[in-house]
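FAQ: What does the model actually see?

It sees only this:
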Amino acid sequence: MKTIYFECNMGASGDMLMAALLELHDNPTDFLSRLNTLGIPGTKVVSEPSVKCGITGTGIRVTVNGEEENPDTFKNKRLHHNHGHSHDHKHDHTKHSHSHEHHHEHKHEHGHENHIHSHDNKHSTEGHKHDHSSYHHIEHLLGHLKISDKIKTNAIGVYKLIATAESHAHGVPVTQVHFHEVGELDAVADIVGVCMLLEELGADIIMSSPINVGSGHVHCAHGTLPVPAPATAYILRDVPIYSNNISGELCTPTGAALLKYFVNVFCKMPELTISKLGYGMGKNDFENANCLRAYIGESSGSKFNQEEVIELVCNLDDMTPESLAFAQQLLLDNGALDVYTTPIGMKKGRTGFSFTCMCRCADRDKMLSLMFLHTSTLGIREYLCRRHCLKNEYSTLETKYGEVRIKYSSGFGINKYKPEYEDVASIARREKKSVQDVIKVIDTSISNNAK
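And it is asked to produce this:
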C-alpha cells in the first residue's frame, strides 16, 4: 500500500508540510508553476534550499503583491500565534474597498461588517488594505480557484476545522470569525498546495507520528496564552500530542488542521519500504533541527489499514442475557468497533460471560463510562492492540430485485465481497424468498458484471 508518513518531532505548519511534500514530488518546478497560476490573488510561492543543524531541506516562501506579509511576523510564523499584530497589505479577493484607519482589540465591533475581530490591526488609506477574511470569504475564494472539485472540498474542509476552532476559542459563531494568521493569503497558498500535493502523490493511506506542540506561552493582544494556543488545542482533540523542553509554539493552527483532516492513523512509524524522503524546514533555528520529515513508500507487503485499538474486558455472572444484549447494542450504537460475549466458568462453579468491547483509542473513556453504567462490573481490564484490516470500498449493485449495497474488501492478496445484510433481508421479505436464494441472485449479478 502506498503510504505517506509524517514525522512531526518539531511540530507542523502549513509551509513545512508543503515543503516536505514538494520534495516527494517528481517535478517540483512544474508543481510550483501550476500553483502560482491558480488565481490566489497577488500570491507567489517559491521554494528555496534551507539548512538546519547541517541537514539540507526545502523552505517555502510566500509573497503577496511582491512583499512578504509583515516580514517580522512571517519569520516568526512558526513560533508565534499572531493573535496580536499589525500590518498593511492589499487584498482584492473580498470584492469591496473602503478607506479608514483605526485600531481595535478583541470584541470591538464596528459597523462596516458587524463582525468581532480577534486581534489588533491597522487599516491604511491606500486602496483596500484590510487584513481580515471571514470563513465565507475564504470559501468563496477557494471555490473560484482553478482546481479540481475534490481539492476544493478538501481545502474548504481544512478551513472549516480552523473556523470551528476559532469560533470555539473566541466564543463567536463561525460566521463572525475573522481569520488573522490562518486567513492570510499565504496560508491559503499553503493549504491549497498541500491539498494538491497529496492528491498528486496519491497515497492509499496517510500516517503521522504524535505531534510535538512545543511549550511555554505566546503573547498576543488578549494577554499571555499557553502553548498550544486555544485554537490549535481544540483542533488537536483526539490526536496524540506531547511537549518537551523546546520553548515556543511548534504546531500552528494551519499545520494542526491539515494533519487532523488528512491523517488516517497517528502512530509510531510502521514497517515501511521507503522510496523517497522530504524535509520541510521551519523559519526559526533551535538546538534541534527545525524540520518536518515526510516519507513515501510501501507498507509491508500488502494493501491494508492498521491502527491501534483498545480492548476493554470484564467478567460478569449476575446479568441476564437480555441486559447483556442491551449493553452490547448500546456500545455499538455509540461507536464501538465490536462488542461480544464469551461463556466462561467462574468461582464457586458459577457460569458467566466475558464481556469484551473493542474501540478506538479516542473512544476509550466514553466506552468505560458506558460499560460501568450498563453492566454490573466493578472493574474493567484494558489491552492495547494493533488491528490490521482489509481495505473496504462500497458500491451499489443493480439486481433484478433492485439495488443492493455491496462491501468489497481487499488486501494481503485477498479479494472478497459481501452484500449488506439489511438489503438482502429486505428483499427476502418483500419477494418471499430465502436469504440464500437472494444471495445467489446477487452472486450471479456480480459475476455478470465482472465479465
